[in-house]
Amino acid sequence: MSRLRVAAAALAALAAVYLLASIRHLDAAGELYVLDAPLIRLTPRRVDAGWRFVPRLLARVSSYPVSKRTVRAELSGERAAVTRDGTRAGIEAVLTYSIPADRILDLHSTLGPRYEGSWLAPMLRRRTEETLRTAPYDLFRNRDPVLTRTQKSVLEKDLDAHGVLIEGLRLGPVTASAGAPGTILRVDAKPIDRKVVVIGVDSFDWRVIDPLLRQGRMPRLAGLIARGARANLKTIQ
Predict the structure, then answer these.
(1) What is the pLDDT of residues 115-127, one digit of tens each?
(2) pTM for the complete prediction?
């Protein structure tokens, strides 16, 4: 066999190996796929699940969720949000979203498959901080729906520009995780020399109590508050 035939046979074998290595089976349930090839400037296009030819080193397949997904942003501790009146508020924003099939190429072309970690989660955190910064603490404390509506209207503009649809949004105080049994946090201060009564009110919260106090309809509770202190309780999960 001549050298030319040997070389041709070797090239044919390499081509066969390359072709076989470029065949992929896309079978993940609940995924949308986008095929593109930045090196050869191939226009991105949607592909369905199944066996697909994806040239190795030249093209790539990116996957996106079909079903609803949830992303969270927690602002607590040293990173707690600050309200308009300067009060620090530990808040958690929970965003549920989906990606319509007809907008998947918009998201892919602007942000790519790593959109959630590089853009969505940081943006949710930033927008939550901005919303709290322009709102009084009472809106947060009372879980006023105005706060959620304000946040949602801002997020809708950000998400729609990239083809993402808001399915739901929840803003609420951060709840502490249950600690180890027997763990007690102690304040570095001397005990006071008088008895203290702590009154916890369940469900009947400040959104109901405050208007009644202003109307003078709860004078005894008003007197207790005047002689003591009031605050929200931080509960465990």
Answers:
(1) 999 999 999 999 9
(2) 0.64
